[in-house]
């Protein structure tokens, strides 16, 4: 079987963070005898990496896109009403669709699989409708393309013109993969045939994220050997609620001065978060690591006592899964895909979003009850092995491919 995967920024190596879930999935799927071709919306060089065929955009402007303007007739009228950068976004969509169409024509895959309804799903839909080769279209939803959080301007569907594109894609897809119950329910609301929506949980490589990993290197690096370590790693954006984790620090440190927060990742809110820590007088207890390569992040989990995921909305929450696989209990908010992973009081705790006091209480509970860390960590690992191993997801996706072909 041959498939074409549409993923704008799919990584070619394990060390890259953006869309790492696509890398994990395709490198596991090829072990089931499937030939995988990935079309990216990145300018670069095409080639074979880790057994996967990658196709990047050429560096030159593609004049053939202008011949595809007839594709505009496929756009819902509302979706063409855009702001000042509207023409540029249309060009980008059509250029990407044109590249996908070329790959469809040359590889003639059995399945066309897009990650995200927009922009990848839309470009894949355009490519399929303009190609002589029309394989079944599978769309995997991930969160931003289906869920919303208006207070943070999170979610493409907050914009009516893009919501129209998402609905068109999903109603023309042969199968829709939802990684969480929250996404599954939302997708079924907006498609005419809800039986085409499949709940297939995300997963991680439980051999790479494992309780046997040694966090000594990280504890040495930051001089943390006598400290209680709270860890999280998120892009520094409003929707991930890092502000509320930082606001929990004064309440925790008032009772335990040996607690250190490690906050991985970067983003536009990082200066604000650093200033917030200073304003609260807790900057000496918070370490902002910046970007952590994906092939190193497992050691940060190993070095931590507990992991906190304070999101305001979450399609899945891969940080939760990785922490669980490493045998760590997780404190997570009661939103989105986090609810699929944390059983309150069993392998971690669920807290309301935007509630630093609740976060502080649970951190203190773990710091004062080390036996709970060990007990819940074991349960977390067991759940990861039984439900959220990447191999389980890969097998279900391969089975879905075969069902579509038959």
Structural notes for this entry:
It is a single chain. The chain has 406 residues and is of the alpha/beta class. It has 2 domains: 2-203 and 389-405, Rossmann fold (3-Layer(aba) Sandwich); 216-387, 3-Layer(aba) Sandwich (Rossmann fold). The chain is 40% helix and 17% strand. The strands form 2 sheets. An 8-stranded mixed sheet has the order 3-4-2-1-5-6-7-8, sandwiched between helices. A 6-stranded parallel sheet has the order 11-10-9-12-13-14, sandwiched between helices. Strand 1 (2-6), helix 1 (20-29) and strand 2 (35-43) form a beta-alpha-beta unit. It starts with a strand and ends with a helix. The mean pLDDT is 95.
In short:
The protein has 406 residues and is an alpha/beta fold. The protein is 40% helix and 17% strand.
Task: Give the SSE map.
Blueprint: E1 2-6, H1 20-29, E2 35-43, E3 47-49, E4 52-57, H2 86-107, E5 111-115, H3 117-130, E6 137-140, H4 160-172, E7 175-178, H5 181-190, E8 197-199, H6 216-222, E9 228-233, H7 242-253, E10 259-264, H8 270-279, E11 286-290, H9 297-303, E12 306-309, H10 318-325, E13 330-333, H11 338-341, E14 348-351, H12 356-368, H13 370-387, H14 390-405
Parallel strand pairs: 1-2, 1-5, 2-4, 5-6, 6-7, 7-8, 9-10, 9-12, 10-11, 12-13, 13-14
Antiparallel strand pairs: 3-4
Helix pairs in contact: 1-14, 2-3, 3-4, 6-9, 7-12, 10-13
Radius of gyration, rounded? 22 Å
Strand order of the largest sheet: 3-4-2-1-5-6-7-8
| CATH topology annotation of the largest domain | Rossmann fold
The termini sit apart by 13 Å
Helix content estimate: 40-55%
The CATH homology group name of the largest domain: Glycogen Phosphorylase B
- Global shape: globular
As a percent range, the share of strand residues is 15-25%
| Weakly predicted, low-confidence segments | none
Tally of strands: 14
Treating each run of at least 4 consecutive H or I residues as one helix, how many helices?
Answer: 14
